[in-house]
């Protein structure tokens, strides 16, 4: 069966998405269109380029994820030099290595820009913090005077994956603003863009299935706020989840594979092989349980 797929963000926890996708493919499902945020944008882009779940799994298992952490060289021989760089560069890591890896992987399938894949087969979410705007790539690039078809998919993925303060924001100059626009992780504004393919205002032409890296009951759990740090965490979670929660009604929940995520950090890029296997198997288990009750 041909479906549209939506994949949530979650940083390194995205390994669980791969396990769920493998199960779907084993059961005869294939993707016509994909959409994603952050880690989900990587998976969505690879699928749009022609990779299957097994190939993505093998590719990630064969590489050292740590090489994606391209820290800038400290220019001052003092302990807090990296924090000075963070102040000026707005991120601990550049993000160049991530973009290059995604670009090289897509190029192996002959895919570089959005013109190399079917029209609107891939949608990626990013956050424009210069203008306070949720951005759907490649569609919204015209706002900045940029040709969507000629835009590199790897650049779009990097924009969506630029976790605030972890990776440096991506700057696009375009033609509409003299000093450029800064983009960060799409999860800041929409971590699970199910609304792109499945909402009351979008005509659904085929089944839409989402994979979300958080349990259904976790969405309803109140935040504990007793100090400034807990307040900051609650503010960030509200920004990340509130927009999507408006669109995930009871009608949509039945089409979402919820994968519980609690004990692994989204930025743990030094994940060992055992933890990777746990995540993949968790995704597989949740997808198998979902398909036993899913009515499409």
Task: Give a description of the structure.
By secondary structure, the protein is an alpha/beta fold. About 35% of the residues lie in helices and about 15% in strands. The protein has nine helices and ten strands. It has helices at about 15-25, 40-50, 55-60, 80-90, 95-105, 155-160, 230-245, 250-255, 275-295, and strands at about 1-5, 30-35, 90-95, 120-130, 135, 165, 170, 180-185, 210, 255-260. Strands 1, 2, 4, 5, 7, 8, 9 and 10 form an eight-stranded mixed β-sheet that branches. Helix 1 packs across helix 9 (about 275-295). The chain starts with a strand and ends with a helix. Residues about 215-220 have low confidence and may be disordered.
Q: What is the strand tally?
A: 10
- Count up the helices: 9
In what range is the share of β-strand residues? Answer: 15-25%
Mind describing the biggest β-sheet? 8 strands, mixed
General shape: globular
Pattern of helices and strands: EHEHHHEHEEHEEEEHHEH
Provide the gyration radius in Å.
19 Å
The low-pLDDT segments are 215-219
Query: Which structural class should the secondary elements be placed in?
Result: alpha/beta
Mean pLDDT: 84
Estimated helix fraction:
25-40%
Distance between the termini: 10 Å
Question: Could you provide a short overview of the structure?
Answer:
With 296 residues, the chain is α/β, with parallel strands linked by helices. It has helices at residues 15-26, 39-49, 53-62, 81-89, 96-107, 153-161, 228-245, 250-253, 273-293; strands spanning 2-7, 30-37, 91-93, 122-128, 133-137, 165-167, 170-172, 181-185, 208-212, 256-258.
